Amino acid sequence: MSLSNRILPIVACLTLLSAAAQAQTITVASGNGQVVRPNFITDPLIVVVRSSQGVPAQGVEVRWQIASGQLGTLTNSVTFTDASGRTSATFVGGNVFNTSSFAQTQVTASLAANPSAAAIFTVTTVNFDQASGSLTIDTLLLSPDLTQLPVE
């Protein structure tokens, strides 16, 4: 094996490590604010990872987790960015108990090399009545109620 055949794999490995080390920011690209029924999957939750120079970073490990709400599951807990610096995961809505009409869950995507760099998604799971086939959404009128309206 020639010396050039030994060096090339090392250079490729160092290039990927360099991209991961330079990754500085992670931002939501799309998918935030979705509403999903129990046991249904969301559209992709997509993030973009960029270097400190603002260039999309390829090959960066992104870790996904449910940060709060604990209602649902993620299809992937670890993904890697593509050439455009993008990666995604999807969320499957959990069961909403009959005492609530909806539940919100926060999903966090963070850089494996720097967990404090994170993007946060909010997904709302709504109760679905299987018998009637209708969504149940409760509303609460905070203000004004009828006693607060001016009398003319």
Any key phrases for this structure?
152 residues, mainly beta, 6-stranded mixed β-sheet, 3-stranded antiparallel β-sheet, 1 helix, 11 strands
Polypeptide structure, described:
There is one protein chain. By secondary structure, the protein is mainly β. Helices cover 13% and strands 44% of the residues. The protein has one helix at residues 3-22, and strands at 23-30, 35-36, 45-51, 61-68, 72-74, 78-80, 86-89, 91-93, 102-111, 114-129, 134-136. The strands form 3 sheets. Strands 2, 4, 6, 9, 10 and 11 form a 6-stranded mixed beta sheet that branches. It has a 3-stranded antiparallel beta sheet with strand order 1-3-7. A hairpin with a 4-residue loop joins strand 10 (114-129) and strand 11 (134-136).
